[in-house]
Model the fold of this input.
Amino acid sequence: MKLRRRSGLGFVVSIFAVASILLGAAPVSAAPPADPTDFPAGYTGYHTYNEMVADMQATVSAHPSIAKLKDLGSTFQGNHEMWALKISDHVARDQAEPEVLVECNMHAREHITTEMCLYLTHLLTDNYGQPTDVGRRVTQIVDSTEIWIIPMVNPDGSMYDISNGTFQGWRKNRQTFAYSNKVGIDLNRDWSYMWGCCKGSSSNPASARYRGNAPFQATEDQLLRNFILSRRVNGVQQISEVLNIHSYGEHVLYPFGYTKTAVPPDMTQDDHDTFVAMAQQMASLNGYHAMQGSHMYIYDGDFIDWVYGDQHIFGFTWEMYPGWGCGCGGFHPPDTVLQQETTRNRDAALYFFEQADCPYSAAGLATKYCS
Done:
């Protein structure tokens, strides 16, 4: 049995240990196949795919009244599932409450983001009902919101990035094509809104920013899209906010990425003001820098552009630690920073969850939109 101490998350056991703990009870979910890969020395505080699933299963086992796992389907290679953890006070029911989606590890090498998502699952479950300031805030959030957290959108690519005991520097998924011997689609350039419009992605399968030959060619993006569309009830999208967690740069980004225009024709001034207000408040709480995504560089076919442009959900991207030019690890910072760099986002995350009922309130527009 594999037993490790995870920074800030407590003990996490292997999938086999969880299975033995649950022996004799109805299984929370089917156990995935054994994964022989592990992180290189100095990085073993990070979760592999199997350890991530084990952590999620242990969370459900410890908090069955507020946490539930949902299998969104198999990723391209077929040996990994995309798992979502639902957190709600009546978790087995679909309530008339605003919904929030947080997803991580869309880009394979950005492993610190999986740790951020797992930290948030523990923040919301371990503090529920506790008589502390954080506990009271968490309880109010969980009692009034349905929260979905996907810690690893790109498990095929993520596990490839740590294959053979070293980092591969891999960004894309591991999709193969009949028309090319190259591998992979950039999951953050394959979305249909303004796909391929603006020189912010590549048509070359060899590129790390390959957008595919059509929107939603990537299996993982199809799974994520289908889940988001499934949250529409009577034509109304129930998800009010999305948090797309990446690394690195220490930014809070808001739409659009395809244009540098602050308020283009496909965005209202009120929505822009809401994006700016929320981003600036989150940045004030975690020490990041708030800005429109395209101020980094132009990108198109982006997930958050689709979230807002197609579904009118207030979507943000966090680019986590480290800051640009720090010389401190880039995409692969050591595991010694995990506790510090996840917990620094606690208050920003709580603020984000608290806006789910009326994001417009951040810009003083609640009376106009949420009465």
Residues 269-286 form the longest helix (18 residues). The longest strand covers residues 239-249.
